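Posting this for the archive.
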Amino acid sequence: MNWPILESKLLKNNAFIGTGAWFDVDLICKINKPLVYTVIINPMGAYKFENIKLFEDIYEMASWQG
């Protein structure tokens, strides 16, 4: 559990007030006074899987899905 504490101190000491979207949100939430964090929201995340189920014979994967 030391990593998020040390990383938060490092970021704060270098004038960062938050973390990026790929920071481990579960770990950062467990410490006192966590940095602001970004959550990845992917509204199209289920699109590929749902369409493969419905149209598996004709479905073509879009470039952004690869």
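The CA atoms of residues 2 and 31 lie 9 Å apart. Helices lie at 2-13, 25-29, 47-55.
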